[in-house]
Every structure is written in C-alpha cells, then in structure tokens.
Write a structure and sequence with these properties.
This protein is mainly alpha-helical. The protein has a domain at 16-83. Helix content is 61%, strand content 4%. The chain contains two helices and two strands. The protein has helices spanning 2-57, 60-69, and strands spanning 100-101, 107-108. A two-stranded antiparallel ribbon has the order 1-2. Residues 97-109 have low confidence and may be disordered.
Length: 109
C-alpha cells in the first residue's frame, strides 16, 4: 500500500507541475497575443493616416500649385490652343482617294 501511495504522490506532483507549466505558457501566449493585437491596431491607425495624407497630397489644387510654383508650368493661352478632331471610324482622311473600309478590312476605292 505504501508503494501505491508513493506512486500516486509522484503522479500528483507531476500532474501539478504540468498544470503550472501549461498555465504559465498560456499566460505568456496571451501576453504575446495582446502585444501583436496592439501592434496591428497601431499599423491600422498608421495606414489610415497615410491614406489621408495621400489624399491631401494628390488633390488637383495642390498639384496645380506645385506645377506652377516649382516647375514654372502655367495654363495654356486659349487663343493659341488648337483643337484636333478625328474623323468618324471607317472613314479615311480626305485626299488619298479612299472613301471607306469594307467590313472585311479590304479597302474600297
């Protein structure tokens, strides 16, 4: 009977040490999890801030101001602006004798 009691005591101590070890590991992993969640939250806040900053830097008004101030660019004068129009699809430019294109892609003269 004494041997059985000694064996049970050894098993009890081993079981208690296993419980303590597993509890310690669980607490350590929980602390690591909270630290990673905090880091993820900080990164998410930084990402939101960077998106806001990108939107500010990319506004048309700011781009126009930088273009005129730093690059010396200016809007073109409306009197010197030339508008180029394209002819309708399937019609060739006048002067070369081609009046249109056939559906198969062959030219008609």
């Amino acid at each position: 009977m004494t041997r059985l009691n000694a064996l049970l005591l050894v098993l009890l101590v081993a079981s208690a040490l296993a419980v303590v070890t597993s509890q310690h590991q669980a607490r350590k992993l929980f602390i690591d999890l909270e630290a990673e969640q905090a880091a993820a939250k900080r990164l998410d806040e930084e990402f939101t801030q960077l998106q806001l900053e990108q939107g500010t830097w990319a506004t048309n008004k700011r781009i126009e101001a930088v273009a005129s101030r730093q690059l010396g660019m200016r809007l073109p004068d409306p009197t010197t602006t030339v508008v180029v129009t394209l002819e309708a699809p399937g019609r060739a430019p006048s002067g070369d004798g081609i009046t249109g294109a056939a559906p198969s892609g062959d030219r008609i003269k």
